[in-house]
Amino acid sequence: MKTKKPSFPLALDIGSGSGYIYRAICSDDAFTGPGGIGGVRKLVQLDSSDILLHRDEADVLEGGHRCDTYRLCTDEEGVLPFPDGTFDLVLSSQSMHWVNDLPGLFREVKVCSSVVVCASFAIIQPHTRPFIHSSSFARYREY
User: Fold this and answer.
1) Which of 92, 82, 140 lies closest to 112 in space, CA to CA?
2) Angle 27-60-56 (CA atoms, 0-180°, nearest 5)?
3) What is the model's pTM?
4) 104 in Cβ contact with 80 (< 8 Å)
5) What's the structural domain count of the chain?
6) Among 64, 75, 132, 137, which has the minimal tally of Cβ within 10 Å of its Cβ?
7) Domain at 35, CATH number
8) What are the tens digits of pLDDT across the range 88-122?
9) Cα(74)–Cα(125) distance, rounded to whole angstroms?
């Protein structure tokens, strides 16, 4: 029996900053088929800081041929400007602790995600927003 490896051709990075996730995705080939790690062929990098978002744009990225990117400067806490069901994968690394309305952001992620979506959020500094782990975090499981 052959197991199908997951592929996420269109991904969203919320709070992407200068593009660390993009560099990681481009660092190696997909397990099968085209794209970078996870089969990502296009990554939309979303951040509210235009300066940070475009800081390293001119740098030549080793492995950049594996995955295309689009940088979008917009507020992560507002309505995300994407049609329903757009993304196969939603990521956020080390930026969620800055979001004041996490339930609202998770609702937006649910709307712009495909039916079968993989979402991964890394909150490295939980003490900057202690309510994440106390009263509110349990509610996010439903999103």
Assistant:
1) 82
2) 95
3) 0.79
4) no
5) 1
6) 75
7) 3.40.50.150
8) 888 888 787 778 888 888 888 888 887 666 667 66
9) 23
Residue 3 lies in a domain: no
Q: How far is CA 104 from the centre of its chain?
A: 16
Cα separation values, 13 from 36, 57, 95, 127, Å: 14, 16, 10, 23
Tell me the per-residue pLDDT of 57-73, one tens digit each, with 9 for 90 and over: 888 778 888 899 999 99
Is there a contact between 91 and 12 (Cβ–Cβ < 8 Å)? Answer: yes
- The partner residues of 10 in beta bridges, in order of sequence, read 42
H or E segment and range at residue 72: strand 68-73
Which H/E stretch holds residue 116?
A: strand 113-122
Q: Which helix (H) or strand (E) holds 109?
A: helix 102-112
Please give the helix or strand (H or E) that residue 70 lies within, else none.
strand 68-73
In a domain, 56, yes or no: yes
Rounded Cα distance, 10 and 22, in Å: 12
Q: What range does the domain containing 69 cover?
A: 10-142
